[in-house]
Amino acid sequence: MSPRPAGRTTAVPIPEVLRPHAEDQYAAELAALDAADDRQRPPAWRLSPWAVVTYVLGGTLPDGTVVTPKYVGARRLVEVAVATLATDRALLLLGSPGTAKTWLSEHLAAAVSGDSTLLVQGTAGTSEESVRYGWNYARLIAEGPSEQALVASPVMTAMREGRVARVEELTRMPAEVQDALITVLSEKTLPVPELGTEVQAMPGFTIIATANDRDKGVNDMSSALKRRFNTVVLPLPASEDAEVQIVTARVAQLGRALQLPAEPPALTEVRRVVQVFRELRSGVTADGRTALKVPSATLSTAEAISVLTNGMTLAAHFGDGAVSAADVAAGLVGAVVKDPVQDAVVWNEYLEAVVKERKDWRDLYRACRDLDVVVQ
Amino acid sequence: MTVSLLGIRHHGPGSARAVRAALRALEPDIVLVEGPPEADGLLKHLPGLVPPVALLAHSVDDPARAAFWPYAVFSPEWQAFVHSHEYAVPLRFCDLPAASTLAQEPTEPAEPAVRADPLGWLSRAAGHDDPERWWEDVVEHRLGGDPLELFAGIAEAMTALREQEPDPDPHDTAREAHMRTVLRATVKEGFSRIAVVCGAWHVPALAGRTTAAADAAVLQGLPKVKVATTWVPWTSRRLSYGTGYGAGVASPGWYAHLWGAPDAVAERWVSRAAALLRASDLPASPASAVETVRLAETLAAMRGRSLPGLSELDEALEAVLCEGSPAPLAVIREQLAVGLQLGNVPDTVPTVPLQADLERTCTRLRMKPTAGDRDLELDLRKEMDLARSQLLHRLLLLRLPWGTLRVSRSTGTFREAWTLRWVPELSVGLIEASRFGTTVPAATAAVVRDRAGSAVDLPSVTELVEAVVLADLPQALAAVTAALEQRSARTGDVGHLMAALPPLARVLRYGSVRRTDTDLVQGVVDSLLVRVVAGLPPACTSLDDDAAAALLRALEGAQEAVELIAAGNQVEAWRGALLAVADLHGAPGLLAGRCVRLLLDAHVLSGDDVGRRLSRALSVARAPADAVHWLEGLLRGSGVLLLRDGVLWALLDEWLTGLSAEHFEEVLPLLRRAFGDFPAPERRQMGERVRHGAPRGVAGPAAADWDAERVAVIVPVLAAVLGADRG
């Protein structure tokens, strides 16, 4: 057993936290998978690769346990991701904002090593200590450099215990901090020159990093580091039905969490928002007849979710409790028009050429026109 | 006497390998291959052929009625040809003659039947989702083993499958009856070891017992047409999905690799991909190549496959070597998985139908290919000359520049002057172009559709619209308008959008004469106008003089197009956009002035409105140069406006005389340019008006002390400046 308090998947009652960790929330599913899984497991893995894929994509086990899908998307992407981890390569999840990169990395870590908490958040201020190790200065001054004075980073802990470490928003870290990962990934060792020792990674250690490919060049990865990762690009949802499914499920969950008195929006309203997002994102109308300009905004699924929860809030506090076109319109315009000049052209063109022409979208057209985004 | 039935998968490298091994083991004294018997005589050309090539059979009277049988080096049929050539074994085609196949109306298969995809059924039975991968697993990756045993297994599986078939397809029944008839005839001729290479589906039918009389009854009374056959060069791309006459092989390059690689298939594939990326100046380290193979193997293991297939390698290449970026992956897919091979056919093979069609057309139009230059004047009002012009334009689109247009024609004129010169390269080009179609119009339309699909920007599509009209290709119009719609949505360049309007307007206006589908064009024009109206005002800021002049040209073209074809509310929207530009802060004077003029002409603005704007444009706050540009835009082409409207005249006069000496010098050349292109009589009238009208404050306070002599020196210069010297 590991020396860390690793009992996260045991039956200790979960305290009422705002958001439990994946391995706690889905402890029952993980246990059922563990029991049903008779395939070969890579060293130190909690589950076999097949079971990890099933955990992420959902399915029904032989004993009747239903595993909920955590990620809705192409099976091959998840398979490539899991196979990468199984070859002890590091995995880089790349994608636009709001394509479930963090979500997927958390669930992969939870399924592979039963622990999704070894997390380094990449920011402009992330220092090398959070990737390698730091010192407890009180002890350092009192006792000099010693094993006890060393403060291990999540990466170091993961190496020691053969677990998965997660690095969020890798490209937001300064380049020199990013490059500290190169030795870790290629040599699988982390030298501690102050103590004259090193920490060697145990089997099962790997890193899942996420990065955003929209705002590139923040701190672009060096090619030396890039080469140490297998990259999986997470796309925006492939079909309208898949996206509607994701949005409805998440809106309902969030509405409950925020304790909104409003009804969850009707499926038609969800479908309409998703359609607007998909059409503008792909640059073509759903019937494939009219091509459209694409706005500078990402228009991710996560934003569609927020447009609808926003609409629910408006409907609950200022409307009649049912989400209508007017409640959605403001959020919609705000999500699309990020650049006041270019995007306004795109939006007006879309309103006039597409929304106006659809008979049952008249309410949405009027609601958006009332907001009056005019090309100057 | 033995008959060996080798059931194959068309274009399967594993099948090809098995066929080659089986033929060497069997040592047959004759080989029968599924294919049109009319092509028997063409096999003598085999040594000169470089695959991929296709057998082409077409109706002599109607070359558009044609069928292709494409072969790559990894096609089992091709390997049978090679065997027959190397071992001097006679080879015959045994399928239903193309004469009968082409005589029938082409029909789409009604519903997906087992026969359409026997392997799909087998692979589903084996629990695999993808028949190609399943076949790869059980056949294509079978490097050793006894080929005859394999073919026996296939025959057994197909027999089991065909028992499920509810009712046989009549076309298949006829084909199989003919194959059996040929087989019987071959036996009768005294051949003792016969090998038959045919689609796996047909094996049970050939093995089954039917009487010669029953088969003769099936074949009796089939319609027939006169057929010619030849070889044509083919490309890897045409073997893949999605293009016309495709062979249905999604990744011919991968199959060629499976055929060519002796061992270490995955490693060789990844090395080739890495080399390709390096050749394209993209990073691809050997270390990454190693990791790619590892990932592909792990993926294969996870999916329970013995060896990584194309999908595993593809996914691994994407994740490791391409670092998730789509551009290098597209290079690999295009150049490696599909491949860039182009087949070759020697000169000795018979003429292609495209060539025959051109010759027929030339005879009809009384045009004769000549080596030297020959001039041709065409009067497009004459039917014959119009057809000639269309033919030459079509050939230009096929990149066969037989004629060169000396004076380019605008749609307004009806004369065209060409220089004709036939060079031998054109014959070669003709054969190359034959893969696009069998008649000149059909091939040209295919080329136009192809180019419309791959055009990168709007102007190149706009050019195609003109070409479609000039070459009279209504059948390609749908594809071109679709591409136009696509590109116009993507482009941010309003100038390009406006430039697309005039040719479309011409199609709409004259399209009805040519019976083109004007509804399609109308739809595109409508959406283009919406985009132009939305995008025009923002596009008119931050432009330098050249950009403004270019945009002005496009704007005037669009104005003409709008007047020609637009509906009432569209005209109104267009004028709204013009008004927005006219009053836009920061719009170049040239454009703003022109918009004011267009609106004045359309009676949207009154003389007073224009006066107010002119005075604003000429006010001190604006740079004099910009003011002159504004003026140039307003007056462009004609000064009648100034002569007619006393208020404008006075405003201009006031501004000009109020300029400081320095500013006057600065604007003088610009003014000269602005007034220079007015017709001479107008300039004379202006000059007269300047001379006889009350010149106010020309010389300021010093006016009283005119020195007549000195004035006499200046006046001719001034007259020259104002262009009034002949007055």
Average pLDDT of chain B: 80
Please report the number of helical segments of chain B: 33
> What is the 3D form of chain B?
elongated
Secondary structure class of chain B reads alpha/beta
Oligomer: heterodimer
Largest sheet descriptor of chain A: 5 strands, parallel
Structural class category of chain A: alpha/beta
Side by side, the strands of the main sheet of chain B go 1-6-2-5
The order of strands across the largest sheet of chain A is 4-7-10-3-11
Number of domains of chain A: 2
Q: What is the rounded distance between the termini of chain B?
A: 110 Å
Give me the count of strands of chain A.
11
**Architecture per CATH nomenclature, i.e. the level-2 architecture of the largest domain in chain A:** 3-Layer(aba) Sandwich
Shape label of chain A: globular
- Count every helix of chain A, treating DSSP H or I runs of 4 or more residues as helices: 15
Supply Rg of chain A: 24 Å
The name of the CATH topology of the largest domain in chain A is Rossmann fold
Radius of gyration of chain B: 36 Å
User: In the CATH hierarchy, what is the superfamily of the largest domain in chain A?
Assistant: P-loop containing nucleotide triphosphate hydrolases
Q: End-to-end distance of chain A, in Å?
A: 66 Å
Secondary structure layout:
The complex is a heterodimer of chains A (376) and B (727).
Chain A lengths: L21 H4 L1 H10 L12 H9 L1 E2 L5 E2 L7 H12 L3 E6 L5 H13 L5 E3 L11 E3 L1 H7 L6 E3 L1 H8 L2 E5 L6 H13 L1 E4 L4 E4 L5 E7 L10 H4 L2 E6 L5 H18 L9 H16 L18 H18 L6 H12 L5 H14 L6 H10 L5
Parallel strand pairs in A: 3-10, 3-11, 4-7, 7-10
Antiparallel strand pairs in A: 1-2, 5-6, 8-9
Helix pairs in contact in A: 3-4, 3-5, 10-11, 10-12, 11-12, 11-13, 12-13, 13-15
Chain B lengths: L1 E7 L4 H14 L3 E4 L19 E7 L6 E6 L4 H11 L4 E3 L4 H4 L16 H8 L5 H10 L6 H17 L6 H19 L4 E7 L3 H5 L4 H8 L7 E7 L2 H4 L12 H9 L4 H15 L6 H17 L7 H12 L4 H13 L14 H13 L8 E6 L3 H15 L5 E5 L7 E6 L3 H10 L6 H15 L3 H13 L3 H17 L3 H18 L6 H22 L5 H21 L2 H15 L6 H13 L5 H11 L6 H12 L4 H5 L1 H13 L2 H16 L3 H13 L15 H15 L5
Parallel strand pairs in B: 1-6, 2-5, 2-6
Antiparallel strand pairs in B: 3-4, 3-7, 8-10, 9-10
Helix pairs in contact in B: 1-2, 1-6, 1-11, 4-5, 7-9, 11-15, 12-13, 12-15, 13-14, 17-19, 19-20, 19-21, 20-21, 20-22, 21-23, 22-23, 22-24, 23-25, 24-26, 25-26, 26-27, 26-28, 27-30, 28-31
